Amino acid sequence: MSNQKKSKGGIKTTTSWKNALKRDWQLYLLLIIPLALVIIFSYGAYPGLRMAFMDYKPAKGYAGSKWVGLDTFHKVFKDADFTRALRNSIVFNIADLLVGFPMPIILALILNELRFQRFKKVSQTILYLPHFLSWAIIGSVALTMFKPSSGLVNVAMMNAGLIEQGIPFLNEKWHWAITYLLIGVWQGMGWGTILYLAAITGISGELYEAAMIDGANRWQRMVHITLPGIRSTIVTLLIMNLGRVMGSNLERLTALGNTQVKEFQYQLAVYIFNKGIGNNKFSQATAVGLFQSVIGVLLVLMSDRIAKKLGEDGLL
Amino acid sequence: MANTKTINGEESFSAGGAHAVIGFKISDAIMMLVIVILCATCVLPFVHVAAKSISGNTAVMSQSVYFWPKDVTFDAFTRVFADESMTKSMFFSVWITLLFTLLGMIVCTCAAYPLSKKRLKGRPVITFLLMVPMYFSAGIIPAYILYHQLHILDTFWVLILPLIYSPYNMLIMKNFFQSTIPDSLEESAFLDGATNFQILGKIVLPLSKPILATLSLFYAVGRWNSYADNMYFTRSADLKMIQYKLYQLVASATEAQNASLADTGGVAQTTPEVLQAACIMFVTVPIIVIYPFLQKYFVQGTMIGAVKG
């Protein structure tokens, strides 16, 4: 695992293309398959981005549709649906990051401190489970648990006399916002600990020994040894997550959403799906998709710069 | 995982940071309690759904089923299995997942093996070409139009071809080849007159079984669980994978219930809760069954993936 940093070959020799092809033609032959797939399915879709600058009509195709320059973008930015989707996407993603990011770190610290190895192993296995389930399953189980009248959580609380009426966890927008965020945290928290736990095993035992001789208690060792020990993992993961602030997950949104929470559930992925595939407004949906992709790339590049400034490896 | 083993001595000590404290303290109890509660949130919802799925209708309607079934009956499951659209979706999912995994692994190896060779001329350019799609995608609509032009829209190919090349999986495999297979092994085979294909087939792949297993599972679980492309690019009923089927079933039941709550006070329901619970279990059980096995390989793969190439 460690030789990633191997120097790029000692002596610089230049092979002519003729020799390289003669020696490695089989390797180039293998590469044709993935290259063909990428060129057809990824690069092949890039020319379609010109729809964002056209008034694209599916019946007329690219040739018959008019170029309109930036008109589509002007229209989109004035569209109330778009501003709502943009606001929801940004607010919910930032909230996701604020609530969801620290959780795996805390959990990893706790798991690391657990006494009984058996208990630790079993709980890790259980905590990883939600990561392996689809949003369709999580969404449908969440509905079973949180329905206002018959959901288990509400029924249990009503029977215990804690509440008079069912709480609309998934049926009222503010409740929904919190439930949506917490389910996201719950889904990712266990799996998120893996990289932190791996980083913790890399911390030298001598540091703990020395600290204990100096009389540091468990809490002090956690704060002064474990946390600094996983600092670079934290920074790298934080930055990677920053790069995703514009993304939105259609599966999660639709699996947990319903018409009563449209106001908050309406995010960019939903906008693109509804406008583009639902209403054939191809140009608008493409423009929004392009906007999302460009911001995404800029965020990744920016995050990478920040990471390198902080003396971390960076992502690219 | 590998590095857990190599520094095992230190690991047991650093964990010993906690062990060294004599006696079981209150802080231990609190931490265990927190973990137990969190684990409960991961297990109990599924126990509840499972209990519901094999309980009698009246017991469920009277909301007396918590974590243990009442009036045990397997009627709901009989109905799920009798519903041809459910079983067909399940088989379709299995078939798509298998084909996707097989093709995905072939494509992944075709990309990762050549790119793991430092001597390969043009390697940086090719790597760049193969990595760009990870950072910039044209988006759903251009893809939709493209698939339409390629005549794969609403066919099962649209669930396979666009996604079988995965830059992320390719990086993991490439990292593994570079770090685990010694160059000297290949060099000596090369001197003995072995071709690149022979080296790949007879030396590299047999030595890479763990990573091949891990990545196959990445592919399989990824395909099995995702259905956004199923929503975007297919319409036909016989192209619905089981996850999408479940989503639609539950979504339509919820909307119907919301509507009926408004006018009739919540008596009418399209899909009875027991049947819905049985459907959820029908979709969940396959993954739970292989989960213990999955988990181990996933952890390994994630560790290798975390080391950037």
Find the structural class of chain A using helix and strand composition.
mainly alpha
Number of helices of chain B: 15
CATH class of the largest domain in chain A: Mainly Alpha
Helix content of chain A: 55-70%
Mean pLDDT over the full residue set of chain B:
85
Can you count the beta strands of chain B? Answer: 0
Mass-distribution shape of chain A: globular
Major beta-sheet overview of chain A: 2 strands, antiparallel
How many DSSP-defined strands of chain A? 2
Cα-based radius of gyration of chain A, to the nearest Å: 25 Å
Largest interface: A-B, 106 and 120 residues
Tell me the name of the CATH homologous superfamily of the largest domain in chain A: MetI-like
What oligomeric state best describes the polypeptide chains here? Answer: heterodimer
> What percent strand of chain B?
under 5%
- List SSEs of chain A in N-to-C order: HEHEHHHHHHHHHHHHHH
Unreliable stretches of chain B: 1-19, 262-270
**Low-pLDDT segments of chain A:** 1-10
Described by strand count, sense and barrel closure, the largest sheet of chain B is: none
Cα Rg of chain B: 25 Å
Number of helices of chain A: 16
Features:
heterodimer; A: 316 residues; mainly alpha; 1% strand; disordered N terminus; B: 309 residues; globular
Write a structural description:
Chain A is mainly alpha-helical. Chain A has two domains: 1-41, no CATH class; 57-309, MetI-like (MetI-like fold, Orthogonal Bundle), CATH 1.10.3720.10. Helices cover 68% and strands 1% of the residues of chain A. In chain A, strands 1-2 form a two-stranded antiparallel ribbon. The model of chain A is unreliable at 1-10 (pLDDT under 50). Chain B is globular, with a radius of gyration of 25 Å. The chains are: A mainly alpha (316), B mainly alpha (309). At the A-B interface, α1, α5, α6, α7 and α8 of A face α1, α2, α3, α6 and α7 of B.
Per-chain topology:
The complex is a heterodimer of chains A (316) and B (309).
Chain A: H1 17-42, E1 54-55, H2 61-64, E2 66-67, H3 71-78, H4 80-100, H5 102-113, H6 117-128, H7 135-146, H8 152-159, H9 173-201, H10 205-213, H11 218-229, H12 231-242, H13 250-256, H14 262-265, H15 268-278, H16 282-309
Helix pairs in contact in A: 3-16, 4-9, 4-15, 5-9, 6-9, 7-13, 12-16, 15-16
Chain B: H1 2-6, H2 8-19, H3 26-53, H4 57-61, H5 75-82, H6 84-115, H7 123-135, H8 140-149, H9 167-180, H10 183-191, H11 196-207, H12 209-225, H13 228-233, H14 242-264, H15 273-306
Helix pairs in contact in B: 3-15, 5-15, 6-9, 6-12, 9-12, 9-15, 10-11, 12-15, 14-15
